[in-house]
Amino acid sequence: MNKVALVGRLTADPEIRSTQDGKSVANFTIAVDRRVARNANGEQQTADFIRCVAWEKRAEFAEKYLAKGIKIVLVGRLQTGSYKDRQTGKNVYTTDVVVEEMEFAESKGARQEAKQDTQQDTGFMDIPQDLGEELPFN
Fold first, then answer.
1. Which of 27, 62, 81, 100 is in the most buried spot, having the most CB atoms within 10 Å?
2. Closest by alpha carbon to 6, among 44, 47, 43, 42?
3. pLDDT by residue (tens digit) across 45-60?
């Protein structure tokens, strides 16, 4: 039996495209928490980043409703593959979860809050305005 169940948050908005025969496909990655015991005081939490592929109606759902930071539950199957990298000529091996079912893991309000938080994150650090003369460049 090949069955996978995951709960995690999207690391970025899904990438949606269509195949040559018109089928929709969505690619996205979810961060799934993993607990690793570190010391006698407790646990340290880390995450695995799982690549996922959704086809047709599930891809359309992903395009319409999923965004970076949203927590989802999904069920699918593992699929492995390989291809030859054009630049290096080496074989690259892939493992993806092909999504068979998915649903939200949190309320609509929490999803909207997560979406707002990620939209405000520009990826740049805030620098105070009064540091202009101390910076090595102007």
1. 62
2. 47
3. 789 999 999 999 999 9
Phi, psi of 24 (to 5 degrees): -80, 140
| Higher-pLDDT residue of 136, 76 | 76
What are the extents of the domains in the chain? Answer: 4-120
For residue 10, pLDDT beyond 50: yes
Residue 130: in which H helix or E strand, if any? Answer: none
Class of the CATH-defined domain 4-120: mainly beta
- Amino acid identity at 76: G
Phi-psi region of 26 (alpha: psi -120 to 50; beta: other; left: phi over 0): beta
Looking at residue 131, the DSSP 8-state letter turns out to be G
> For residue 49, which amino acid is it?
F
